[in-house]
Amino acid sequence: MSSGNTMSLWCLLVLLALPDPTVSTNPGVKVQITQQGLDYGRQIGIAYLQENLMSVNIPDISGSKDVSPIGDVEYRLSGMRITDLDLPQSSLGLVPGTGISLSIGDAFINLHGDWHVTYLGFIQDSGCFDVAVSGLTIKATFGVGSDEMGRPTVSSDDCTASVGGISVKFYGGASWLYNLFTSFIDQALRNSLETEICSLVHNAPLKSLNARVDKYAEIEYSMVTPPSISNFLIELSLKGEFYNIGQHQDPPFSAPPFSLPPQNSSMLYIGLSSFTANSAGFVYNRAGALSLYITDDMVPSSSPIRLTTETFGAFVPEISKRFPDMMMKLLVKTSTQPNVTFEPNNMTLQAMGTLTAYAILPNTTLEPLFILNMDASVSGNFYISGQKLAGSLQLNGIDMGLGTSYVGELQTLLQMKPLFNIFIKLVVIPKVNEYLQQGFPLPAIGRMNLINSKLQVQKDYMLIGTDVHFTQ
Model-level pTM? Predict the structure, then answer.
């Protein structure tokens, strides 16, 4: 496990960034970190400290001391490194309204280094030494904030490291020097170790939470209100809004309030409101990404219905009369952003759009035949795939009405409706499902994996209960 790839307990806390105080809005996503999650975070944090303490750089210690009757003795302790350590007792607790406290007790550290002295102006002596540090305690509290760019920061508001006892063994050199070393090495090493340990705590790594989805969209997971911290859990309110890449335009609707019930059987709970889903629809519709051309080669070969002017000419003779024996192309696209609603155990998406039918002329240009207005209702199934929310849709029903006709009156529109239902079911829904199965990134940090995940659809939001696992 390397420090660059290891995520520690305060990686969970990166979610706790304070927002711009001028912003007041309801969240699109809520996250609860339970005591189980904090306990796991403590294990990761202790592993981080143990790994990085082993490689901590302890500065050389040098100076001089007047020793009667010799006079000044110049000394230097160098090459100090930790050879063994253990952090056997640790606890992690919540500080209501503030953050998290970490306490480590009864720890020990063994060090090895070299010593060198000069006295009487020219006599030199040297050797090595071992140090056993016992009764080491570390106490730290972590607060939250944001930098000048509004990005999340997590800081150690307070850190104290205290060394209980130090035992030193010297090797080599004159024995009369040993008492000299014992008199100053104790305090010098205490100061150095206490400083280096807290410096390590202060400099824990952080990760960004904004998640790029694809070439069209990214999701912003910044905080919209300060975290709510009780004795039992941390609840975070995140913006959870989709934006067009490089164009952060808010949708013409706002997030309604919703609340998560207290949970305790999983480490982490994520509530995704209908606002988050609808902001995705706004972004993709605005980008023109919610459109699909349907050609005959996309229709399963087993289908007896082909996308030709002869097929549609059976209902509208003018089509086959003016464009005999030609292939056709359909363009399906949304006219407004789709609207998602969540009800217990049910997700429904209502989409309004148009279907434009074209004849493909011999020179490959497209000749419009007619435009239909559509109002479709679909139901969704969602699940967790890796670090993403994925899903699939199924068509509930579709209503159609004539928008524009370029081939006369379409008196037989209702008779053609089954044809379009077939094309929607056989081509459009599978294509949409291909994309949905790629998934949308959930709020996560670094190499955090979601495991044992369960998803429920509630009133106005989806609830994901999950455990987490950090990997290298």
Answer: 0.76
